[in-house]
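The following block was generated as part of the benchmark described in Methods. Ligand: NAP.
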Amino acid sequence: MIEVGVLGATGYTGAELIRLLGRHDQVRLKFATSRSSPDQSLAKVFPGAPDINLIDPVQAPIEDVDLVFLCLPNGQSAEVAAEALQEGTRVIDLSADFRLADPELYQKWYGQRHPAPELLDEAVYGLTETERERLPDARLVANPGCYPTSVLLALYPLLLESVVGGRVIVDAKSGVSGAGRTPKLATQFVEVAEDLRPYSIGRAHRHLPEMETMLARWGDSDLRLIFSPHLVPIPRGLLSTLYVPLRSGWVESQVHHLYLETYAEEPFITILPLGEVATLRQVNYSNRCVIGMTEVDGMLVITAAIDNLRKGAAGQAIQNMNVVFGLEETTGLL
Ligand SMILES: NC(=O)c1ccc[n+]([C@@H]2O[C@H](COP(=O)([O-])OP(=O)(O)OC[C@H]3O[C@@H](n4cnc5c(N)ncnc54)[C@H](OP(=O)(O)O)[C@@H]3O)[C@@H](O)[C@H]2O)c1
């Protein structure tokens, strides 16, 4: 039995993780933390959540568990991760603190010095499908962002065969839980209801360097994205539509075959028949990523859907844990 702790249990990803861990037959949740609701039941904070007693993070017995999941805001995870690793406890961090290997890039995009730059080299980027070989026995896993999960899974097969013939445009839409539970004016009901709002468009969103780092690692360091996220007035779900110019010589049936082959063995990736589109109904409350595509005049139009709290966060974190500890990858997720 793997013993785990969850820090940040009262957030959207933390609570989702705890619900999923309740179905995992090879994991025991030893503690869950909250600064705002210590000594209360999670069920009181989230009606319908498991009846688990929350403790203050300073009392968390990090040294007594095999793994901690850090569901904390960006900038709050790194120090806790360093402490856990010192105690011999593995870490899966859902924040962005270990996703960028370059501390200067982190400072530029997250507005603060990296709290534990000495750990950046050892962090494994946890996009499970593409980084699976590096995960077994990893001590520190940087769980990917929700937008990058959909965009990178949608682009990976094309990078393998250098099929991308020019600049890629990504138009992405996320439900409001993507912004977290901590109250902010921009995500209050009256602000989001009956609206559809682009934000940080072009090359201004923090997930841009995360995506381009991976594209460079996969061989295309010149590929620059135009990335335009939107806030949609729904609780959960994330859909990215990508416009990809194809290199000459590639036709849609060949490209479609490339996706089918690349992801043939993947339990959580579904490639739709040519011409069909991915939608949120196909993925919400699951760990799946559904990808559809069609070609228009040499431009491949890809749709990629995930549930931001599952494949985009807590589900993928459990998938990574399963690989790190040598369990069946789908355990607790089907
Ligand atoms: N939401 C998504 O779809 C999504 C997807 C992928 C990745 N992520 C990332 O996952 C992390 C958690 O996201 P979330 O959406 O779950 O956020 P959230 O709903 O705002 O929850 C944050 C949690 O952290 C705790 N917390 C806040 N400040 C803290 C501090 N200074 N020290 C210790 N604990 C603190 C909060 O509870 P207390 O105040 O009670 O301690 C809460 O439990 C973030 O880094 C986010 O970027 C989120």
